[in-house]
Amino acid sequence: MAAPRPRSVKDMARLGRPPLRFGDDPLLLASWLYYEEGLTQSEIADQLGASRPTVNAYLADARSSGIVNISISAPRLRALSIARAIEEHFGIDDCLVVPGEGGERSIFDRLGGAGALAVKSVIHSGDIIGISWGRTMLALANAVRDIHVIDVTVVQSTGGTTAAINYTPEACATRLAERLNASFVPISAPAIVSSPEAKRMLEREPVIAEQLQNLQRLDRIFFGVSSLRPSSTIYNSGFFDSHLQQVYAGAVGSMLGRIIDAQGNEVDGPLRDRTIGLDLDQLRKVPTRVLIAGGYDKVPPILAALHGGAVTTLVTDVATAEGILRADGVAVEKIGVRRASATPARSDLLRSRIKKFLNSPKDAVNEALEGAFAAFPDHIEPIDGSPRAIRARAAKPAGKVGVVIGGGAGHEPSFLGFVGPGLADAVAVGNVFASPPPDRVLACTRDAHRGAGVLYVYGNYTGDVMNFDMAADLAGAEGIEVRTVLTSDDIASAAHDDRAARRGTAGNVFVFKIAGAASARMYGLAECERLARKANDACHTIGVAMESCSMPDTQRPSFKIGEDDMEFGVGVHGEPGVTRVPIESADRIVDQICDRIFAEMQPRPGDRVAVLVNSLGGTPMMELLILNRRLRKRLEAREIAVHSTLVGHYCTSLDMIGASITLMKLDDELTGLLDDPCDGFAWSFSGRRPS
């Protein structure tokens, strides 16, 4: 990794631009130099190339506008500190970190607007500029304005696509060229062709060869990265599918249409010699390489791009920046001066080893399942002697749609507690926080099949998607029709307009119930799928953690947290939250959760909801009931009727001290299915009589 290049504000001023991390905020820059770096007003004036009265005015405005109140306001300082940490840790030239929330603009539009600042900062007259494609790139192109350069050429960085999306490579490059009043060079070939021979033939065509030559002359390039989720840009662009996901099992994402591993290198596979456009070696030779990306699912590919030397400037949001640093072993809570949102943990209060009731950690999952079979013999039993492929003991009539669920261990009583009449028919269990393998899912599929097809319902995680998709392909080869519903209720893990990228968490429970009820009513496969999707779309969850969980094999906390902090927006795999904030009272925590859920769900007076107040493992019933008390008051204040409430351990994260709240917005159809009887050992309900 290259060492960071020292660069003073004065050096940047000589280049005619401020450091990107400060954007267009001279008040913040002056405040930082004065209050945190200890420079005099005269020294700041020299650094900025401004007069001393101007600096004095900047500092006065900063105080009056609330940027400075004894110290710089926490959100700005936090973003600034994280940007500096990324620059120093990865040795890149610049980093711009923007808020991930606030206002009505989507995360793509915020990042695109910030990317437009980068465009304005780095391009010069006469430049040859490349741009990739995607929602963020189109937002960047739309946000570019008031940039006065001449003789600029914009080059499409890859071949094209005929996918029905508005952010194609052609559209993004054309729009940027229009905004810059620049010349435009297309790539008159598909991004992915049918064979290596077809690629070589097209690249020899004189027109295409001349166009591709421009990619070797780029001065700047603006690009994004994509995860390999089914909702990702590379899927929607028609360049990738579930079959390729199996082939590229070790990949973490894509960059310029190239599938990359965790070190940012192109993965050898069937697409490598069929992709037309800028390759990764050419990318690394471009002098200025601006990566613009953000979101929970983008952390692995962004980190890979940074490790692979593909980035000179990064534009991202605060939560993603924290995720990148944490994933690379940087203690985010230690970043910044007097950071208000996180108190460094006191080493004398941190437990180094968590005591557990274990024999051998490697046997923990199987021994727990043996205990479950012994405790609930009327509900569950192994399929063909396999303790991790489990079926309901209840008989399944011919013609009934089978419902198969599953995921890693560590979430007990999920998922095996939701198997039985009116719920799922079978469940596949993996290692702790790990997807079950395809053969185990296939065994459950065969057992659940009663001639009407099988519905898979599971959380939106890469490993689960890959393994369940492989099982579905194998089942299809045996004549079993399979349909899939991915749960994505965790509203903290991705933006509203990127719902398909969200994680499935405790809202799983309601989706299992609706799918199981539809199946028990003997509805067809398509109708069961529709209702399960409807239930998922109606669920909204946010989780909060006070302490991390600990894995059986390490018996140590999965992350460290200060005694006065909490993680907001946690998942169920032991990961930190989306943000770390000061700990609040129970009522205040519920208020923060409700504010986020209400903003997303947009409830109206008279609406009905089902409520789940879920322990993440280490939170006792007393505290869950305190949370439910405040939640009920907030719902009553909105005139929202609570139809039913679940409180307790439903979808846990081992021993994590935390809780999640799920609201499912109901209509008559969902209410009727929710009121049908069910009988799993974690949820048994006799059903409501019609009123």
Describe this structure in words.
Keywords: ATP-binding, Kinase, Nucleotide-binding, Transferase. Its EC number is 2.7.1.29. Residues 360-683 form the DhaK domain. This protein has 691 residues and is an alpha/beta fold. The protein folds into 3 domains: 24-70, Homeodomain-like (Arc Repressor Mutant, subunit A, Orthogonal Bundle); 89-328, Rossmann fold; 377-685, Rossmann fold. It contains 23 helices and 26 strands. The strands form 6 sheets. Strands 3-12-11-7-4-5-6 form a 7-stranded parallel beta sheet, sandwiched between helices. Strand 4, helix 7 and strand 5 (153-156) form a beta-alpha-beta unit. Helix 5 crosses helix 15 (318-327). It is globular, with a radius of gyration of 27 Å. Residues 1-10, 12-23 and 336-351 have low confidence and may be disordered.
Task: Provide key terms for this protein.
691 residues; alpha/beta; Arc Repressor Mutant, subunit A; Rossmann fold; 7-stranded parallel beta sheet; 6-stranded mixed beta sheet; 36% helix
Topology, element by element:
Elements: H1 9-14, H2 26-36, H3 41-48, H4 52-64, E1 68-69, E2 71-72, H5 74-90, E3 94-98, H6 107-122, E4 128-131, H7 135-143, E5 153-156, H8 169-180, E6 183-185, H9 196-204, H10 206-213, E7 220-223, E8 225-226, H11 233-236, H12 242-247, E9 253-255, E10 258-260, H13 280-285, E11 288-292, H14 299-307, E12 313-317, H15 318-327, H16 364-375, E13 380-383, E14 386-392, E15 402-409, E16 426-432, H17 438-448, E17 454-459, H18 462-477, E18 482-487, H19 508-520, H20 525-538, E19 539-547, E20 565-568, E21 579-582, H21 586-601, E22 608-615, H22 621-637, E23 641-648, E24 657-666, H23 668-674, E25 678-679, E26 684-685
Parallel strand pairs: 3-12, 4-5, 4-7, 5-6, 7-11, 11-12, 15-16, 15-17, 17-18, 22-23
Antiparallel strand pairs: 1-2, 8-9, 9-10, 13-14, 14-16, 19-20, 19-24, 20-21, 22-24, 25-26
Helix pairs in contact: 2-4, 3-4, 5-15, 6-7, 7-8, 14-15, 17-18, 19-20, 21-22
